[in-house]
Amino acid sequence: MRNGSKKFKELLQAEDYDSMVNMAKEQTKEGAHILDLCVAYVGRDEVRDMKEAAFRFNTQVTLSDHDRLDRGPGH
User: Fold this and answer.
1) In Å, how far are 46, 48, 70 from 11, measured between CA atoms?
2) How far is CA 1 from CA 9, 10, 26, 48, 51, in A?
3) Which of 51, 26, 45, 29 is nearest to 37 (CA)?
4) How many helices (H) and strands (E) in the chain?
5) 34, 61 in Cβ contact below 8 A?
6) Is the pLDDT of residue 69 over 60?
7) 44: left (phi over 0), alpha (psi -120 to 50) or beta
8) Measuring CA to CA, which residue among 57, 62, 66, 49 is closest to residue 3?
9) What pLDDT digit, counting tens, does each position of 29-44 carry?
10) Chain-centre distance of CA 16, in angstroms?
11) Which of 24, 25, 52, 62 has the smallest set of CB atoms within 10 Å of its CB?
């Protein structure tokens, strides 16, 4: 996630964390191996937003490393 995403910003402003999680899940389905979570927006409590979003991403989004697992350790 990046703070340049208009949709993500709108979801954050609405505090629609479930939809933010769904965005992250879609990115992983499309092959993302890492998510860049940025909640720095003027006028928002960045610490509170990060705690909430990071907790939800950590508990509800699974990143897989299929490529590395297929090649074996160390590759």
Assistant:
1) 14, 15, 36
2) 10, 13, 11, 17, 15
3) 51
4) 4, 0
5) no
6) no
7) beta
8) 49
9) 998 888 989 999 889 9
10) 13
11) 62
Is 63 in contact with 33 (CB distance < 8 Å)?
yes
* Confidence grade of residue 1 (pLDDT, cut at 50, 70, 90): very low
| CA separation for the pair 61, 63 (Å, rounded) | 7
Residue 64 token pair: 């897989």
Burial 35-47 (b: 16+ CB within 10 A, else e): eebbbeeeeeeee
CB atoms within 10 A of CB 23: 16
* Residue that is written with structure tokens 């960045």 in the block: 46
What are the structure tokens assigned to 15, written together?
């505090």
Instruction: Tell me if 24 sits within 8 A of 16, measured CB to CB.
Output: no
